[in-house]
Amino acid sequence: MSLFASLADTAYALVRPLVHATDGEAAHNLTLNALQPMPRARSALTSSVLACEVAGLHFPNPVGVAPGFDKDARVAHAMPHFGFGFVEVGTLTPLAQEGNPRPRLFRLVEDRAVINRMGFNNGGQAKAADRIRCLRRYGLPVPLGINIGANKDSADRIADYAKGAEAMAPLADYLTVNISSPNTPGLRALQDRGALEALLDGVAAAQASDPKPVFLKVAPDLEPADIDDIVAVAMDKGLAAIIVSNTTIERPALVSRHADEAGGLSGAPLTGLALQRLRDFRVASGGGVPLVAAGGIGSADQAWDRIRAGASLIQIYSAMVFEGPGLAARIAHGLEERAVRDGFARVADAVGTAPR
To answer: What is the mean pLDDT of residues 335-352?
Structure first.
């Protein structure tokens, strides 16, 4: 584990009681304010065992920061310091929007979970684009994904995604189409086959001159027929990857006083559901579409389970609230150790090797 990540964990352990006593959204904003002045990372945590190729892109290691952490691309430059092998910013909408009323972010400490109903709050694509252009000017040692969404009050959400693709794809290494948030009413309807086909056609047309790999982020709350349809469309449209999965509207047994809050649940209670959905997508695709695992990953063992189940990459966010900012580095080193232990020359060689 890098010295920087280790020091960050030590510092976080000291301030965690204060952080957890603060409103979740306020604490998150304080974190971003603290990270923003950090110097740009010039290198990434990597090794011959960790490095991999997905969607034609080189990833120094397969552990990425999930969108939602850095909605407005304020701290992407700093994230490789903490061991991340790629960064995804957003979700960004064509126009700035406030999102849902506060409070809208809740820590479920006893459950090691988070419930959010943020509602795509962000400063808009134009403002983020200025920051990303500056970032690109000086370089980033890891791939940068840009996650796009639709404005809540948009009269034509498919057109919003096309606008986002046109504006953001030239700045991205890959583009993520997010149709899986439960906090924008009706958004998940875009996972239906007909709507999804029209949406992806619009995104493809909008970046026809300089196409970037397109990832699709889906919900865990899907039926088998939904999964089959999404995979069929993904393969037909040549999607680069499917991210499995976003937060869930399901409510397993929870003990926190915030258990009944509306919104998407993430963190430890999502682990089993997200892993099962990953397996489902692996079976449905037969390995024909790369998969990115997200949701309920808080340790190297859990990350290794996702790799063996079919994930080429993983993303974390909520677990850092409880495990500290050095989690990415710990997971990356843990994946390297598990690959060597189990006889794989590279982590990538273990993708999808778990018995069905």
So the answer is: 98
Topology, domain 3-350 = TIM Barrel (3.20.20)
From the list 256, 261, 175, the residue with the least C-alpha distance to 211 is 175
DSSP per position, 213-277: -EEEEE-S---HHHHHHHHHHHHHHT-SEEEE---BS---S--STTTT-SSEEEEGGGHHHHHHH
Close Cβ partners of 211 (under 8 Å, ≥ 6 residues apart)? 169, 204
In this model, does residue 17 exceed pLDDT 80? Answer: no
d(CA 246, CA 220): 6
Please state the domain extents for the chain: 3-350
Residues tagged active-site: 181
Which residue bears the tokens 């409510």? 251
Q: Which of 298, 278, 296 is nearest to 351 (CA)?
A: 278
What pLDDT, in 10s, does the model give residues 75-100? 999 999 999 999 999 999 999 999 99
Q: Give the pLDDT of residue 327.
A: 96
In sequence order, the β-bridge partners of residue 242 are 216, 291
Q: Which residues of 61-73 are buried (b: 16+ CB within 10 A; e: fewer)?
A: bbbbbbbbbbbbb
Is residue 347 a contact partner of residue 101, using CB atoms and an 8 Å limit? no
Name the residue type at position 287: G
Model confidence pLDDT, tens digit, residues 302-320: 999 999 999 999 999 999 9
**Closest Cα to residue 179, out of 157, 163, 194, 201?**
157
Q: Would you give the distance in Å from CA 129 to the centre of its chain?
A: 19
State pTM to two decimals.
0.95
Tokens at 34, concatenated: 């603290």
CA distance 56 to 31: 33
Q: Which one-letter DSSP state was computed for residue 275? A: H
E-state strands within 76-163: 86-92, 105-108, 113-116, 144-148
Per-residue pLDDT, 2: 65
> CA 88, 171, 145: angle at the middle one, nearest 5?
15
Main-chain phi, psi angles of 75, to 5 degrees = -130, 15
Alpha-carbon distance of 295 to 107, in angstroms, equals 15
Q: Would you report the helix, strand and coil content of the chain in percent, each value rounded to 5?
A: 45, 15, 40
- pLDDT tens, 193-236? 888 999 999 999 999 788 999 999 999 998 899 999 999 999 99
